[in-house]
Amino acid sequence: MLQPTIQDHFFEQILHRFSRRADAVDELCGLLNLAKDPVYRRLRGDTFLTPQELGLLSKHYRISLDALIIGQSDNVVFDYNAFSRKITSFSDYLASLNADFEQIHRMPNAHLYYASAEMPVFTFSLFPELIAFKLYGWARTTWNLEWLRDRQFSFDLITQPVIRESQTILQQYLSLPSTELWTAQIVDNTLAQIEYHLYAGGFRDPKEALILTDRLQDWITHMKAVTSAGCKFNIGENATLGRGKFQLFYNEMVYANITALITSDVGRLAYTAYCTPNFLKSSDARLCDYTQNWFEIITAKSTALTHAADKNRDWFFREIGQKVDRRRQRILLHIEDNL
Known about the structure:
Layout: H1 6-15, H2 21-32, H3 36-44, H4 51-61, H5 65-70, E1 79-80, H6 81-84, H7 90-105, E2 111-115, H8 128-140, H9 160-174, E3 178-182, H10 188-199, H11 207-229, E4 246-250, E5 259-263, E6 269-273, E7 279-282, H12 285-300, E8 303-304, H13 310-337
Parallel strand pairs: 2-3, 3-4
Antiparallel strand pairs: 1-7, 2-5, 4-8, 5-6, 6-7
Helix pairs in contact: 7-9, 10-13, 11-13
């Protein structure tokens, strides 16, 4: 029996991303500008890929030729969203998130594993005020949008079309089953950003800082209900109509950078934050194996907060709620002292 060639392994990685071989063939025909018969000859190994075809496909599917040829290479190929599309508006960033979610939802039985010491980025969209503030912060720092350089924050900076785009992301997240790992510092970064902007004179109306802390308390209340139900649902929805299943774990010993893994019947994708809120993405099998193994080890050593874990769940959400209360009191005193 003939041993698989490098070309066989190369096509195996491509075909693994499709639930139907016919869908892969159709896409390859378009990419290579070939009819189906020449594509099938290449898949069977009757015809070798040309260097140009190999380069085109490896770039399109982000497959490391180095790893295929050398076998034990430590190199990993990543996509970086900030390279492919310069962020010039709030919509640019939301569009990149939506594009990734659309890809994920085409993967049968997709499941999200998500670890973070900060609030999951998708959940800011539960409340327009929170997503508005986060987009403003990223635009002023990471994206350095010129039109916001000297503008104070106010809720009306974010238009309704942008809010609707953020709601599309939220709906995608709510329908995707997820297993998540949080720490008790989950709200710390957002609270620090609110207070910093207040002290720096970054709010047109300082009372909006208080509204943001109120929305954080609403976020805590809602996410506690989601955790208790073990399924996701939107504000105002009944938990019994929940969509994606939700499992939450708590581990104070792991202060993780945002790390995510998508598993499915046709492949996996690993994500990590890089120059937040941008991210790196890879389908490298070794990286996905390592990430999946990491999640399994950490969750096995973590405290489950979903379903029957009432005592632990109550403590966790009370703990982060008290942080918001204490910060709100400081913000209120600052506002009153500067009236």
